[in-house]
Amino acid sequence: MEPLERALSAEGLTLSAIPGKGRGLIADKNFFPGDVVICQEPYASSPSKTSTELRCDGCFASAGLKKCSQCRIAWYCGSACQKSEWKLHQLECPALSSLREDRKKMLTPTLRLMIRLVLRRKLQDTGVIPKTATDNYDLVAALASHMSDLDEKQLLLYAQMANLIKMILPSVEVDLREITENFSKLSCNAHSICDDQLRPLGTGLYPVISIINHSCRPNSVLVFEGRIAVVRAMQPIHKGDEILISYIEIAATTETRQEYLKQYFFTCSCLRCIKNPLEELKENAILEGYRCKDHKCIGYLFYEAKEKKFTCQVCGLSRDEYGINRIAKEVSTKRASLASTVNPSEASLLYRNLELLELKLFHPHSINLLRTRETLLKILMELNDWRGALTYCWLTIPVYQRLYQSPHPMLGLQYYTCGKLEWILEQTENALKSFTEAAEILRITHGISTPFMKELFSKLEEARAEDYYKQSA
Ligand SMILES: C[S@@+](CC[C@H](N)C(=O)[O-])C[C@H]1O[C@@H](n2cnc3c(N)ncnc32)[C@H](O)[C@@H]1O
């Protein structure tokens, strides 16, 4: 048995060739919801960087950062992270320091990730950092690259990026073809590193986690504890089942999901993607379609081309195409005018107007309406309008229930937000219910021992005690 296979076997996993998918991971034992299937430190990672937010190279925190005084590119939240990153940064720093200021500005997180990957390999090859069965460059070399699927434009872009890496690291022997291929590997293997609330913090390459294939109806979920990637079972996984996670936002129609998956060069054939055509039409009519003329009916509409109308499949009422197109045009004009809005009070008014208009057009469970309401929720929280925010948070829940099969972290997090708002509004009994729902889901997806989960459990206990006190008073 190879060292990787031995390491996987100790975790109850087998590396297998899966017809039509390349390699994959198969459960060699039963996993229960909440069980950790596998976890891994990144082979290389880089924090995301925006004009307004910088992050620590070590833990991706954004508070209390100090810049490396030499290269002025790396940031650290304190000496512990600076120390843990030192072996790598010792090689990276002189290379970055010698870059011209305009070149420093071109250093995207992806370029930085590649620099760190090349340097980490060098550190392992020279014995500065030990290699292990699950942490070595051979695992990166074995990743799917899809080089033959790239179009010329993409290939040229990766080749130019490889040239930049060679220019930035003149003291390292760099194989341009290999680096070009590695850029392609990053595109279909790297994972976005997120915080507990699924907000992106950076990017990492986890060569063992990257063996896991995709499903739009996955049995596992990938979350992060700091930079460590943790795959947990969401559903019962039986011995012999393939471990599957989702690479993409699954709140989308099949067509949209397949579009997102083009980056990975495969067509998903999971059970959600190959449902019968009528089911497919129904899902599209709900997620991207229009609402019934009778606003009390939550039926979905099918288009009847001959009569140029949309007919509700529940109550039979029809809407004419002309009327639909007219409102759709108004919606897109209103949406376009929102792009320049920065003031939250003004934004809340404009988004409420947009929501009212969208309510006339879209199915109540449509993704368009959901996104508008999610935006309103954020704006109202920013404005400390807790009551308004709670209304919108609750409006999203039935749609989340439809889109994310439970237990899904997105649903758990949304219940958590409802609970926090209800707690602020002193709706103790409701807060207790929402925290309980959140904890039931998130203990499966996030585990029970992180500071984030401990905070949720302590809020739950506080709500339980307060509720008991109120009931008995
Ligand atoms: C992160 S890798 C997964 C491991 C990969 N199968 C391997 O052999 O290394 C992503 C690639 O795996 C393949 N893949 C992942 N999920 C798939 C699926 N559901 N159906 C077909 N191919 C899939 C695609 O080639 C995709 O670009």
TrEMBL record:
Gene3D superfamilies: 1.10.220.160, 6.10.140.2220, SET domain, Tetratricopeptide repeat domain
InterPro entries, alphabetized: H3K4_H4K5_MeTrfase, SET_dom, SET_dom_sf, TPR-like_helical_dom_sf, Znf_MYND
Record domain SET: where: 11-248
Molecular functions (GO terms): zinc ion binding
Signal peptide: none
Keyword ATP-binding set for record: no
Record bears the keyword Metal-binding: yes
Domain of life, per lineage: Eukaryota
Cellular component terms per the entry's GO annotation: nucleus
Keywords per UniProt: Metal-binding, Zinc, Zinc-finger
All copies of domain MYND-type, residue ranges: 56-93
PROSITE patterns in alphabetical order: SET, ZF_MYND_1, ZF_MYND_2
PANTHER family from the UniProt entry: EG:BACR7C10.4 PROTEIN, HISTONE-LYSINE N-METHYLTRANSFERASE SMYD
Protein name in UniProt: Histone-lysine N-methyltransferase ASHR1
Organism: Platanthera zijinensis
